[in-house]
Amino acid sequence: MTTPKFVTRWRSEDLGHPIPEERHAVSVCLPRWRDNVGYEEGDPAVTGAMQCGYPRFFFHPDTARLFAECERRLARPGECAIAFPSERVARRCADFVSRETGATVRTAECLGDGVHVVLMPVTARDTAKAFWQHAGEIVPSRQAAALLGQFRGQAPQNSELAGFSFDSTPHIVPPNLNSAVPDPATDGAREKRLIRERVAGLQGCSADDVYLFPSGMAAIFTAYRLFQRLRPESRSVQFGFPYVDNLKIQQRLSRVKPVDRAVSFFPRGTESDIDEVARLAAAEPILGLFVELPGNPLLGSPNVARLSELSLRYDFPLLIDDTLAACVNLDTLPIADVVATSLTKYFSGAGNVLAGSLVLNRERPYYERLKTLLAEEFEDIFYGEDAIVLERNSRDVAERIPKINANAARLCEFLAERPEVADVFYPARVDRVNYERHLRPGGGFGGLFSVVLRDAAAKTERFYDALQISKGPNLGTSFMLCCPFTILAHYRELDFAESCGISRHLIRVSVGAEDSDWQIERFAEALRS
Q1: How confident is the model at residue 412, as a pLDDT?
Q2: What are phi and psi of 120, to 5 degrees?
Q3: Does residue 366 register a pLDDT over 80?
Q4: I need a labelling partner for 357 at 20 to 30 A (CA). Which of 134, 148, 165, 388 fits?
């Protein structure tokens, strides 16, 4: 039986190691169920071992060192600092922190490259960190490392950085990548053009209508700001249970008051919910409707064709997040005003760079208005070296995804037949008709699924701990990766998640391109445990 060529991180001694094994990895090994709980609860035994984390949730050591240097240079007593890639982003964060906390907040340029720092009382730091997470307009670790190159030998001061060696951290490139190290002096302009052309080819549009961002969430936040400029007093609609920050953007970054009126949320995404959306749209103007196809983590596919008809009838823009369609499986742009994609996931496949795209549909009625607003709102804050890495990673996306599709379908069939398994959530098994309506020729059902065991409260932790695949946040990599999704995404709101049909014992699995028999045997062994 073939074994994978990359390092599989699942043992207890792997806690805190980067996944993949390189400096700018965007996932981290949390091998046991209790490690994930410990991370959420801030257990020093877990957080102190973490050499990295998902960069919107956990400040990468290089990025945290950048904050510390800005703080050393500019902060007054009692102040802390968080850096952002531009003055406009820093001001957005400052406005949010001031609005949420009432604190005095200021911004300043620091260390060049357009980077601006938000300086605030230490008590407001968590609020600024929430903006970093939700908005996704971050300073990536490669940019931070380049800015701090002259301080390379300096030991980190932040407690989050404990255990991370800046001089010895390996730069191991996954086997599907060229081993050449990008030139930090390159601005990535050529690679950005190639990425936009590649995305345009997959979406069937002009590269002029493709915009790149430092994360998928930054793309969605930009679209949300455009919608707000069109209808600043209107509420948005979130249709279907989404990835956590898709909803948080609409709840926390809206200027609609009171905040509980900022968004109407339909977590189940049923046909009767569409009827409710129609009644709402007939009664008041809608800021815009946000929907994932398929959804994360239950992989359901709402009837977006019907939602598209409503958007035309009642004159509101429709955004589809097609990240889990894996770039090549579904054709969603014809029925949407805007399509947002996290390029971190399947487009990259390597798990070592964050990026996102926003695509406008020039055949829809909102195109000219959104295009005009984007000319004012958009700024290129996608770091050049990240673009170089992403362009190289994504060259084989069209060849990579069919293998992942086939592996996931086979593994889901195996699990669905096991008596230990209560539910397998996968687009081929949930709302299949709605999904297939937008299937591209040769497309499949993607590489992501979620599983819930029978007697889940008693058996899930033991099963998860025994599962011998890499374990950490992120998805869409060419190697298998899983996590206890509800614990990581909704630990402070588990009852809310379960009221929406998301079990706290749910395990989300991102299937890779390894040998399919090897994948099935990993799950068979864990079930036998």
Answers
A1: 98
A2: -155, 165
A3: yes
A4: 148
Where does 330-436 show beta strands of DSSP type E? 338-342, 356-360, 421-425
CA neighbor of 126 nearest in space, from 103, 108, 149, 150: 103
Structural domains for the chain: 61-161 (3.30.1370), 189-395 (3.40.640.10), 397-528 (3.90.1150.10)
> Do residues 242 and 290 make contact, with C-beta atoms less than 8 angstroms apart?
yes
Q: Whose CA is closest to 494, among 459, 455, 457, 465?
A: 457
Contacts of 232 (CB under 8 A, 6+ apart): 255, 256
Distance CA 88, CA 72 (A): 22
Go through the chain and tell me how many residues it has. Answer: 529
Averaged pLDDT of the chain: 92
Cα–Cα distances (Å) from 253 to 126, 232, 240, 409, in that order, read 15, 12, 19, 38
Q: What are 183-219's pLDDT values in tens digits?
A: 545 689 999 999 999 999 999 999 999 999 999 999 9
CA-to-CA distance for 160 and 63, rounded, in angstroms? 11
By percentage, how much of the chain surpasses pLDDT 90? Answer: 89
Spatial CB neighbours of 273, under 8 Å, sequence gap ≥ 6: 239, 266
The pLDDT-based confidence of 260 (bands split at 50, 70, 90) is: confident
Q: In what order do the strands lie in the sheet with 448-453?
A: 421-425, 448-453, 507-510, 481-483
Q: Which of 44-58, 177-191, 238-252, 399-413 has the lowest mean pLDDT?
A: 177-191
3-state secondary structure of 64: helix
- Of 84, 18, 29, residue with least CA distance to 52: 18
DSSP character at residue 208: G
Asked if residue 136 lies in contact with residue 357, where contact means CB atoms within 8 angstroms, the answer is: no
Q: Is the pLDDT of residue 524 over 60?
A: yes
Helix, strand, coil % over all residues of the chain, rounded to 5: 45, 15, 40
Q: Give the 3-state secondary structure of residue 407.
A: helix
pLDDT of residue 186: 67
Residue 161 has pLDDT above 70, yes or no: no
How buried is residue 176: exposed, middle or buried, by Cβ count under 10 Å (0-12/13-18/19+)? Answer: middle
* Residue 5 confidence class, pLDDT cut points 50, 70, 90: low
Give the predicted TM-score (pTM) of the model: 0.92
Concatenate the DSSP letters of all residues of 144-196 into one string: HHHHTGGGTTSPP-SGGGTT--TTT--BPPPTTS--PPP-TT---HHHHHHHH
Spatial distance between the Cα atoms of 412 and 409, rounded to a whole number of angstroms:
5
Q: At 384, is the secondary structure helix, strand, or coil?
A: helix
Percent of the chain at pLDDT above 70? 92
Provide φ and ψ at 357, rounded to 5°: -135, 150
